[in-house]
Amino acid sequence: MYDAVIFDADGVLLDSEAIYHVIEMEVLGGYGLTYDPRDYRGRFMGMHERTYVAALDEEHRAKLGTPLPADFLPTVRGLSRIACDERLECVAGAHAAVMAVKTPRAVASSSDAEALRRKLTKVELAPLFDPHIYSADLVPHGKPHPDIFLHAADALSVDPTRCLAIEDSVNGVRAAVAAGMTVWGFTGGTHLDDGYAPGLLAAGAARVVADWGEAERLIHAFQH
Protein backbone atom coordinates (compact mmCIF):
# COMPACT_ATOMS: atom_id res chain seq x y z
CA MET A 1 0.00 0.00 0.00
CA TYR A 2 2.90 2.38 0.74
CA ASP A 3 6.33 2.45 -0.87
CA ALA A 4 8.03 4.13 2.11
CA VAL A 5 7.33 5.20 5.69
CA ILE A 6 8.67 8.53 6.93
CA PHE A 7 8.81 9.21 10.66
CA ASP A 8 8.95 12.44 12.57
CA ALA A 9 11.45 12.26 15.44
CA ASP A 10 10.57 14.40 18.47
CA GLY A 11 7.34 13.20 20.05
CA VAL A 12 7.06 10.22 17.69
CA LEU A 13 10.28 8.23 17.95
CA LEU A 14 11.77 10.28 20.79
CA ASP A 15 9.87 11.10 23.98
CA SER A 16 11.47 14.52 23.98
CA GLU A 17 8.63 16.99 23.55
CA ALA A 18 7.62 16.73 27.21
CA ILE A 19 11.18 17.76 28.10
CA TYR A 20 11.27 20.62 25.61
CA HIS A 21 7.93 22.13 26.44
CA VAL A 22 8.69 22.54 30.14
CA ILE A 23 12.03 24.21 29.39
CA GLU A 24 10.70 26.45 26.63
CA MET A 25 7.70 27.65 28.61
CA GLU A 26 9.78 28.33 31.71
CA VAL A 27 12.26 30.43 29.72
CA LEU A 28 9.47 32.27 27.90
CA GLY A 29 7.68 32.91 31.19
CA GLY A 30 10.81 34.61 32.44
CA TYR A 31 10.53 36.97 29.47
CA GLY A 32 6.86 37.69 30.16
CA LEU A 33 5.30 35.35 27.59
CA THR A 34 2.97 32.78 29.14
CA TYR A 35 0.85 30.15 27.41
CA ASP A 36 -1.74 27.52 28.09
CA PRO A 37 0.17 24.25 27.49
CA ARG A 38 -2.37 22.86 25.04
CA ASP A 39 -2.47 26.10 23.05
CA TYR A 40 1.33 26.20 23.02
CA ARG A 41 1.52 22.64 21.63
CA GLY A 42 -1.06 23.34 18.95
CA ARG A 43 0.62 26.51 17.74
CA PHE A 44 4.33 25.85 17.96
CA MET A 45 5.06 22.12 18.21
CA GLY A 46 6.71 20.67 15.14
CA MET A 47 8.04 23.97 13.78
CA HIS A 48 11.65 24.30 12.69
CA GLU A 49 13.70 26.60 14.93
CA ARG A 50 13.74 29.37 12.33
CA THR A 51 9.97 29.48 12.07
CA TYR A 52 9.47 29.00 15.81
CA VAL A 53 11.82 31.81 16.86
CA ALA A 54 10.37 34.16 14.25
CA ALA A 55 6.84 33.48 15.54
CA LEU A 56 7.89 34.05 19.14
CA ASP A 57 9.74 37.23 18.22
CA GLU A 58 6.62 38.57 16.51
CA GLU A 59 4.56 37.70 19.59
CA HIS A 60 7.08 39.29 21.98
CA ARG A 61 7.04 42.50 19.95
CA ALA A 62 3.24 42.55 19.81
CA LYS A 63 2.70 41.85 23.52
CA LEU A 64 5.72 43.50 25.13
CA GLY A 65 6.96 45.98 22.56
CA THR A 66 10.49 44.57 22.30
CA PRO A 67 12.24 41.82 20.31
CA LEU A 68 12.55 38.34 21.73
CA PRO A 69 15.78 38.34 23.78
CA ALA A 70 18.73 37.12 21.76
CA ASP A 71 19.69 34.58 24.41
CA PHE A 72 16.40 32.66 24.11
CA LEU A 73 17.54 30.03 21.62
CA PRO A 74 21.01 29.42 23.11
CA THR A 75 19.45 29.13 26.57
CA VAL A 76 16.80 26.65 25.45
CA ARG A 77 19.31 24.64 23.43
CA GLY A 78 21.71 24.37 26.33
CA LEU A 79 19.09 23.36 28.87
CA SER A 80 17.48 20.91 26.44
CA ARG A 81 20.77 19.21 25.63
CA ILE A 82 21.54 18.68 29.31
CA ALA A 83 18.05 17.32 29.98
CA CYS A 84 18.09 15.00 26.95
CA ASP A 85 21.55 13.70 27.77
CA GLU A 86 20.30 12.85 31.25
CA ARG A 87 16.89 11.36 30.62
CA LEU A 88 15.85 11.11 26.97
CA GLU A 89 14.17 7.83 26.03
CA CYS A 90 12.45 6.61 22.91
CA VAL A 91 8.68 6.43 22.87
CA ALA A 92 7.65 3.00 24.17
CA GLY A 93 7.45 0.45 21.37
CA ALA A 94 9.22 2.59 18.76
CA HIS A 95 12.05 0.12 18.04
CA ALA A 96 9.73 -2.78 17.31
CA ALA A 97 7.42 -0.68 15.15
CA VAL A 98 10.27 0.73 13.07
CA MET A 99 11.73 -2.73 12.57
CA ALA A 100 8.33 -3.96 11.40
CA VAL A 101 8.52 -1.63 8.40
CA LYS A 102 9.81 -3.64 5.44
CA THR A 103 9.68 -0.79 2.91
CA PRO A 104 12.32 1.98 2.80
CA ARG A 105 12.08 4.28 5.81
CA ALA A 106 13.42 7.68 6.82
CA VAL A 107 13.32 10.32 9.54
CA ALA A 108 12.14 13.82 8.59
CA SER A 109 12.55 16.14 11.56
CA SER A 110 12.49 19.80 12.55
CA SER A 111 15.43 19.24 14.91
CA ASP A 112 18.79 20.65 13.89
CA ALA A 113 20.98 18.05 12.26
CA GLU A 114 23.54 17.60 15.03
CA ALA A 115 20.95 17.30 17.80
CA LEU A 116 18.80 14.94 15.73
CA ARG A 117 21.58 12.44 15.17
CA ARG A 118 22.77 12.71 18.78
CA LYS A 119 19.30 11.94 20.14
CA LEU A 120 18.60 9.05 17.76
CA THR A 121 22.00 7.57 18.57
CA LYS A 122 21.39 7.85 22.31
CA VAL A 123 18.22 5.73 22.11
CA GLU A 124 19.77 3.33 19.56
CA LEU A 125 17.41 4.24 16.72
CA ALA A 126 19.96 5.79 14.35
CA PRO A 127 21.15 2.42 12.92
CA LEU A 128 17.57 1.59 11.93
CA PHE A 129 17.44 4.59 9.57
CA ASP A 130 20.98 5.33 8.42
CA PRO A 131 21.69 7.06 6.12
CA HIS A 132 18.15 8.37 5.76
CA ILE A 133 18.03 10.81 8.69
CA TYR A 134 16.99 14.26 7.49
CA SER A 135 16.80 17.58 9.32
CA ALA A 136 14.91 20.65 8.14
CA ASP A 137 18.31 22.37 8.23
CA LEU A 138 18.69 20.82 4.76
CA VAL A 139 15.74 22.64 3.17
CA PRO A 140 14.63 26.26 2.70
CA HIS A 141 11.45 26.00 4.75
CA GLY A 142 10.61 23.92 7.82
CA LYS A 143 7.27 22.45 8.81
CA PRO A 144 4.41 23.29 8.22
CA HIS A 145 5.92 23.61 4.72
CA PRO A 146 6.36 20.29 2.89
CA ASP A 147 10.07 20.71 2.02
CA ILE A 148 11.58 18.17 4.45
CA PHE A 149 9.08 15.46 3.52
CA LEU A 150 9.69 16.04 -0.18
CA HIS A 151 13.43 15.91 0.47
CA ALA A 152 13.12 12.58 2.28
CA ALA A 153 10.94 11.06 -0.45
CA ASP A 154 13.40 12.19 -3.10
CA ALA A 155 16.32 10.69 -1.16
CA LEU A 156 14.44 7.39 -0.98
CA SER A 157 13.57 7.62 -4.72
CA VAL A 158 9.88 7.27 -3.85
CA ASP A 159 6.84 9.19 -5.10
CA PRO A 160 5.61 11.32 -2.15
CA THR A 161 2.04 10.26 -2.83
CA ARG A 162 3.12 6.67 -2.14
CA CYS A 163 4.52 7.53 1.29
CA LEU A 164 3.08 7.17 4.76
CA ALA A 165 4.17 9.84 7.24
CA ILE A 166 3.79 9.49 11.01
CA GLU A 167 3.50 12.79 12.90
CA ASP A 168 2.48 14.04 16.34
CA SER A 169 2.08 17.76 15.60
CA VAL A 170 -0.45 19.81 13.69
CA ASN A 171 2.38 21.57 11.87
CA GLY A 172 3.94 18.24 10.95
CA VAL A 173 0.66 16.82 9.67
CA ARG A 174 0.11 19.91 7.56
CA ALA A 175 3.61 19.58 6.11
CA ALA A 176 3.18 15.93 5.15
CA VAL A 177 -0.28 16.52 3.69
CA ALA A 178 1.12 19.39 1.63
CA ALA A 179 3.76 16.96 0.33
CA GLY A 180 0.95 14.69 -0.88
CA MET A 181 1.51 11.97 1.70
CA THR A 182 -0.93 9.93 3.73
CA VAL A 183 -0.47 10.84 7.39
CA TRP A 184 -1.12 9.01 10.62
CA GLY A 185 -1.37 11.27 13.62
CA PHE A 186 0.47 9.82 16.60
CA THR A 187 -0.49 10.50 20.23
CA GLY A 188 1.74 8.00 22.03
CA GLY A 189 4.24 10.48 23.47
CA THR A 190 3.95 11.50 27.11
CA HIS A 191 3.45 15.15 26.09
CA LEU A 192 0.00 14.52 24.59
CA ASP A 193 -3.42 13.62 25.92
CA ASP A 194 -6.57 12.30 24.29
CA GLY A 195 -7.76 15.84 23.56
CA TYR A 196 -5.07 16.38 20.93
CA ALA A 197 -6.33 13.84 18.39
CA PRO A 198 -9.10 16.00 16.87
CA GLY A 199 -6.57 18.67 15.94
CA LEU A 200 -4.44 16.14 14.07
CA LEU A 201 -7.47 14.90 12.16
CA ALA A 202 -8.55 18.45 11.37
CA ALA A 203 -5.06 19.16 10.01
CA GLY A 204 -5.48 16.30 7.55
CA ALA A 205 -4.35 13.09 9.27
CA ALA A 206 -6.06 10.05 7.77
CA ARG A 207 -6.27 8.45 11.20
CA VAL A 208 -4.83 8.78 14.70
CA VAL A 209 -2.90 5.97 16.40
CA ALA A 210 -2.69 5.98 20.17
CA ASP A 211 0.64 4.16 20.61
CA TRP A 212 3.28 2.15 18.79
CA GLY A 213 1.54 -1.13 19.57
CA GLU A 214 -1.46 -0.02 17.53
CA ALA A 215 0.78 1.40 14.80
CA GLU A 216 2.78 -1.83 14.56
CA ARG A 217 -0.39 -3.87 14.08
CA LEU A 218 -1.51 -1.52 11.29
CA ILE A 219 1.94 -1.66 9.67
CA HIS A 220 1.87 -5.46 9.62
CA ALA A 221 -1.64 -5.32 8.14
CA PHE A 222 -0.80 -3.10 5.18
CA GLN A 223 2.32 -5.14 4.36
CA HIS A 224 0.44 -8.41 4.03
CATH architecture classification of the largest domain: 3-Layer(aba) Sandwich
Total DSSP E strands: 6
Kindly, what is the distance between the CA atoms of the first and last residues, rounded to a whole number of angstroms?
9 Å
CATH class of the largest domain reads Alpha Beta
Short description:
The chain has 224 residues and is an alpha/beta fold. The chain has 10 helices and 6 strands; from the N terminus they run βαααααβαβαβαβαβα.
Commentary on this structure:
It is globular and about 55 Å long. It has helices at 17-31, 37-44, 49-64, 72-87, 94-100, 113-122, 147-155, 170-178, 197-202, 212-222; strands spanning 4-7, 105-109, 133-135, 163-167, 182-186, 207-209. Helix 1 (17-31) packs antiparallel against helix 4 (72-87) and helix 5 (94-100) runs parallel beside helix 10 (212-222). Strands 3-2-1-4-5-6 form a six-stranded parallel beta sheet, with helices on both faces. The protein is built from ten helices and six strands, in the order βαααααβαβαβαβαβα. It folds into two domains: 4-16 and 89-222, Rossmann fold, CATH 3.40.50; 17-87, Putative phosphatase, domain 2 (DNA polymerase, domain 1, Orthogonal Bundle). Helices cover 48% and strands 11% of the residues. The protein is of the alpha/beta class and 224 residues long.
